[in-house]
Design goal:
about 150 residues
Amino acid sequence: MPADSAMNSMMNAMPVDQMDEFPQYFVSLEPPILLLVAALVFSVLSGLAFQGALIEDLNNWKANPKARSITSLQNINLILPFLGMAIGSSFFLSSGVEIFGLPPTVAYSFSIPMAFLIGLLVWKQLGSILRQIEQGGSAAIDLDDVGF
């Protein structure tokens, strides 16, 4: 408490025109831990839905590969759960950044573009892998080139 009384007396002694020079820091009194957990659960559930849809579409394509191109698997059945993962990841990342003391506007302006840019890159990589499978089967994917 002595620090609070010292701060109050310093604020009262400071002229009003100099109050703008006093730094204002953001300290969250209620860190968004519930949002962090909810975003994590949402991302994991969306990832499981994405996995299920991808496996089902790949099995259908494997049963009849001449019916359609494998790259047509990147349809609404995969886009929606993938967007769910990206949205959940952006909220998870922004909540984590907010817990460490950044204001919500900074946290969201940092995390949303980052999550969706990474999601776009992963989506393009998925299309590339699907094209490789279509051209040469699963043997076309050489994991030694990837670094595994």
